[in-house]
Amino acid sequence: MHSTLKLTVSHAPFWHNGSSISTKSRNILLASLVAVIPGCYQYGMAAVGVVTLSIASAILWELLINFISRRPISVGDGNAALIGMMFAMMLPATMPWWAVITGTFFAVVIGKEIFGGIGANPFNPAVLAMTILMLSWADLFDFNAALLNYQFDFKAVYPLVLSKTFGASAVDPFALMDLLFGKQIGGIGSTFGIGLIAGGVYLILRGFVRWEISFSFLVGIFVSALCFNILNPEAYAGPGFHLLTGYTLIGAFFLATEDSSSPVNFIPMLIYGLLGGALTVLIRNIGTHIDGVLYAILIINLVNPIVDKIRPKALGKGV
Amino acid sequence: MSSKNELKFVYALAIVCLVVGVFCYSSVPAKSPEPPVRLMFKTVGGNVLFDHQTHSDAYGKKCIDCHHAHDDSRSDVPGSCGSCHQSDSESIPVFGDNGTFDHGMHSMDMGLSCNDCHHDYDEEDGGEPQLCSDCHEPGVEDDFMPGRTQAFHKQCIACHEDSGVVPGKDDCASCHSPRKRTEAFHDQCIGCHEDFGVRPGRTDADCKKCHGF
Q1: Are B37 and A148 inside 8 Å of each other by CB?
Q2: Is A108:A61 a contact under the CB 8 Å cutoff?
Q3: Cis peptide preceding A96, ω within 30 of 0
Q4: How do residues B38-49 score in pLDDT, each as one tens digit?
Q5: Which residues have a Cβ under 8 Å from the Cβ of B126 and sit 6 or more positions away?
Q6: What ipTM score was computed for the predicted complex, to two decimals?
Q7: Shortest Cα distance from B11 to chain A (angstroms)?
Q8: Which pLDDT tens digit goes with each residue over B76-119?
Q9: What is the predicted pLDDT for the residue at A7?
Q10: Half-sphere exposure of B129 toward its Cβ, with a 13 Å CA cutoff?
């Protein structure tokens, strides 16, 4: 008697970038360094502490789950380290150690392992962990309060707070060029725009990230921010501002593009990205939250299985 | 890389990161710098972000302009406003019917002569001594002429200390207890902004400019 091994395979088309998961993880980690290193330069030892602790604890959580559930050790694929890095990039440099460790627990254990490990998570694990933590300890994520003790040569107020409470004219002191070069406060690896773009473009060129998602996410933000801005230029900041502040760029290149929670077909990818961008601006401009990127990504993660149903018909099948 | 090497690489990464992380966390000082760079006041009416450094550097303010109870002759750093101005404090006037200053007791019972205080007054001339504030105007002072508050502090406290009686220099509350915390902040922040003709000021539209965080 032979045992029948049943393999369930999802529908075509498949996407293969011709390399292993660990190569992919390493490349994304490498690309993220372009944004993280300037962040560490800006915030010093504190930021290095957050990033390294986050990576280490994410790996250790996954290892622990591997042991407890007696499954093969999976940390070798580098995905846990990657989750740790993504999570740390969004944090303020003053995050206390216990919050970092709790966060990576939510990301790796609740966000990924519970669903069956890599490839099975419906949500981006780092984003899920961030939103859980932000709802639990909102004060820790108030960048204005968190970064009080740092001296900068630019206006040390989180730009999105200014645009939200004081209207569009309050963000006049921020030149787009300065925002692009990270002259704004924010997450350790989320403010150095030019680095995020460079890292993202590298990943797109190497085929690790689908350009369709990043591009349509940014287009979604641009178009919806432009609409708001045209309707009421005094209340709503322009599209350039929205593209370069908050978690927009890290969201477009590193978060929304996470494999298992994003679509693989062309049209669905465009819808997914556009929807994410539009939701982001809606939440920022008329919602209660300061930044909408993370919630928008969770929502598009949620609709991902539905939009991904829009796919080419299989040949030869009637109707 | 073979999967065995991959695993080794990740283990090494975890250990290095853990060591660096613990080192960084333990080496970053927990204390905030003195004087503070920025301060966030948490209030029920919306938080206030106060740029302490810009106010003292860029706007050219002296510490004593705000830390009005601070003794510049001492080397210690100013304390918090809240140590005196508490949310339940109630300011008591020095003068007037409910005031702490007892003119009759001071001028009769202590054997003090009128000119010990009314230093400009000559009893021989007859008439009444003038009010101090006729000459020592509130807020107007220079090296030669003390302002109203300074004149009183100097005279009242100097005599008490010379006579070895209380209230002395550090005993503010026995002459006048400080006003409420919120009032103290509003009066000082907005008062100075009005003096300089800058905003945020006292109008309703400006509340959010401070309380918008």
Answers
A1: yes
A2: yes
A3: no
A4: 999 999 888 999
A5: none
A6: 0.87
A7: 8
A8: 788 889 888 998 888 888 888 888 898 888 887 667 888 888 88
A9: 67
A10: 16
Chain A partners of B24 at a C-beta cutoff of 8 Å?
45-46, 48-49, 52-53
Measured between CA atoms, how close is B18 to chain A, in angstroms? 5
- Residue type, position A22, single letter: S
**pLDDT (average), residues B50-57:** 91
pTM: 0.88
Instruction: Give me the residues of chain A with pLDDT under 50, please.
Output: 1, 17-18, 319
Q: Quick one: how far is CA A46 from the chain centroid?
A: 22
Between CA B101 and CA B151 the distance in angstroms is 15
The residues, any chain, with a CB within 8 Å of residue A107's CB and separated by 6 or more, are: A58, A83, A84, A87, A125, A126, A128, A129
Q: How deeply is A151 buried, as exposed, middle or buried, from its count of CB atoms within 10 A (0-12, 13-18, 19+)?
A: exposed
Quick one: pLDDT at residue B143? 83
The residues, any chain, with a CB within 8 Å of residue B185's CB and separated by 6 or more, are B41, B48, B81, B85
Cβ atoms B177, B90 nearer than 8 A: yes
Q: How far is A279 from chain B (nearest CA, A)?
A: 23
In this structure, what are the phi and psi dihedrals at residue A82, rounded to the nearest 5 degrees? -65, -45
From the list A49, A57, A148, the residue facing B28 with the nearest CB is A49
Cα A97 to Cα A6, A54, A308: the distances in Å are 44, 9, 39
B30 shares contact with chain A (CB less than 8 Å) = no
Quick check: A160 and A283 in contact, CB under 8 A? no
What pLDDT is stored for residue B50 in this prediction?
A: 95
B27/A166 Cβ within 8 A: no
Task: Judge contact between A236 and A189, C-beta under 8 A.
Answer: no
Side chain identity at residue A182, one-letter code: G
Q: Nearest residue of A to residue B31 by CA position?
A: A149
**What rounded mean pLDDT belongs to chain B?**
87
